[in-house]
Design the sequence.
């Protein structure tokens, strides 16, 4: 097999009805590999290294998932790696280092998830094509080399690197979209995001939970899809760049959007930061409502588009939510439509539950039932449900404010003049479920032009024109959940 170019060996084979996940070497120390090899995918690779005679000059993809490998190829001589595009050595728990990658100018992905013995990475400066660096769970890795040359890096994941003491500068990586730094307790110098990652305008997902030393998150893009900062006890400052709705226009309107920004137990947040978070939540809701109405995606069963914000506090902003209540129900008047055209109603809700007396919980279940009434007596009923599940049990020591939103909170206005809301929240702990008291609730009504999709205040005189929508009585019951590890 001197000219063998392709190996794909899935070692998860069934023997006598049971799963056998390992290929035994049967006394063989190494296996010959052809120098013509382009693609090597060998799960549970049983040997400690690749063949010493193997030259990876033609290798494009290397996948040794869950292998027994301790080293890859021979570093005593120069290796031509210009064809290499991907390295995946995930869960190779005996691997201590990645070999020299000089010359791997076309390498796009390095995946070392769960390499618990990995203590050293090679120089990565020449990897201009690198798009993804996955190091999650490399618990013995103390340092990541500079990435100045990785100008096309999009995914950077060093979550769970519990020994990591210093981050590389990512100032040249202007295309970053996904950053995960969760559970890196030894990042003592990581106080300000801008010191390592000064340009965040392209970032859509940022995970920094339990970064105890983190003090500020400045210049966040307002259109972020995911930001988890749970347990950042020192976090004081959170700022978003210019809250301009036009910045959302460049996003893909056809793709579903699930927005999740959580600041659980960030009890050091300043009042200005909390205000910034609330303002950005309302901006996201406004944009999503316009987008869903434009696409005709509202009051539907799929409910693939949703928003969830959480931050410490027990006050609902009167600037953002004009209708307030000190309990779990709320009634409001809907502003009259002064013209003959059509419009849509989108309801943003805000809740403050009493969680301080709750035991450790693993999930929260939000339920909003609302009814709209027209002057003719016509009624519309709907129900919005949102289930937030978390991978780790949480214990709330302070009050938190929640702002959930989904497709079921948008309806076509059939000359409704009043609305009533009833909120229920339940906590989950294992298989048990407990009702939680709702201390405060708030509602804001967005009035959206059915033709131009412009959002207007209740006091403005608006010219609407009809483009269609659901009529008559109706109802919907939706579930939405997030699962985060």
Sequence:
């Amino acid at each position: 097999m001197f000219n063998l170019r392709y190996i794909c060996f899935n070692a998860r084979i069934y023997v006598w009805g049971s799963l056998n996940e390992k290929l035994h070497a049967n006394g063989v120390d190494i296996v010959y590999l052809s120098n013509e090899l382009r693609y090597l995918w060998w799960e549970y690779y049983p040997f400690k290294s690749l063949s010493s005679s193997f030259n990876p000059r033609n290798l494009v993809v290397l996948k040794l998932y869950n292998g027994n490998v301790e080293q890859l190829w021979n570093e005593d001589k120069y290796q031509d790696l210009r064809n290499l595009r991907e390295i995946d050595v995930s869960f190779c728990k005996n691997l201590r280092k990645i070999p020299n990658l000089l010359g791997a100018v076309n390498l796009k992905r390095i995946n070392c998830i769960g390499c618990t013995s990995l203590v050293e990475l090679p120089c990565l400066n020449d990897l201009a094509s690198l798009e993804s660096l996955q190091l999650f769970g490399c618990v013995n890795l103390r340092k990541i080399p500079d990435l100045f040359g990785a100008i096309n890096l999009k995914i950077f994941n060093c979550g769970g690197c519990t020994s990591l003491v210093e981050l590389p500068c990512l100032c040249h990586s202007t295309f970053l979209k996904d950053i995960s730094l969760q559970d890196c307790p030894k990042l003592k110098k990581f106080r300000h995001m801008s010191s390592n990652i000064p340009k965040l305008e392209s970032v859509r997902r940022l995970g920094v939970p339990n970064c105890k030393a983190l003090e500020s998150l400045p210049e966040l893009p307002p259109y972020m899809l995911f930001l988890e900062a749970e347990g950042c006890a020192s976090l004081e400052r959170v700022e978003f760049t210019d809250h301009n709705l036009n910045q959302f226009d460049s996003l893909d309107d056809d793709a579903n959007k699930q927005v999740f920004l959580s600041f659980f137990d960030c009890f050091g947040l300043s009042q200005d930061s909390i205000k910034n978070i609330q303002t950005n939540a309302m901006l996201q809701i406004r944009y999503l409502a316009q987008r869903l109405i434009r696409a005709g995606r509202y009051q539907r069963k799929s409910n693939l588009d949703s928003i969830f914000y959480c931050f410490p506090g027990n006050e609902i902003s009167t600037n953002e939510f004009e209708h307030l209540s000190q309990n779990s129900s709320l009634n409001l008047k809907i502003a009259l439509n002064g013209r003959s055209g059509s419009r849509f109603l989108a309801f943003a809700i805000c809740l403050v539950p009493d969680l301080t007396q709750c035991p450790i919980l693993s999930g929260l279940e939000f339920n909003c039932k609302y009814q709209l009434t027209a002057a003719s007596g016509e009624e519309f009923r709907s129900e919005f449900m949102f289930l937030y599940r978390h991978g780790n049990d949480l214990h709330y020591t302070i009050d938190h404010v929640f702002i959930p939103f989904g497709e079921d909170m948008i309806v076509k206005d059939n000359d409704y003049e009043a609305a009533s809301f009833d909120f229920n929240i339940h906590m989950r702990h294992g298989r048990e479920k407990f009702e939680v008291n709702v201390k405060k609730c708030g509602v804001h009504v967005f009035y959206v032009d059915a033709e131009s999709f412009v959002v207007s205040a209740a006091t403005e005189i608006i010219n609407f024109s009809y483009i269609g929508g659901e009529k008559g009585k109706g109802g919907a019951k939706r579930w939405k959940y997030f699962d985060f590890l």
Observations:
- The helical segments are 193-196, 271-295.
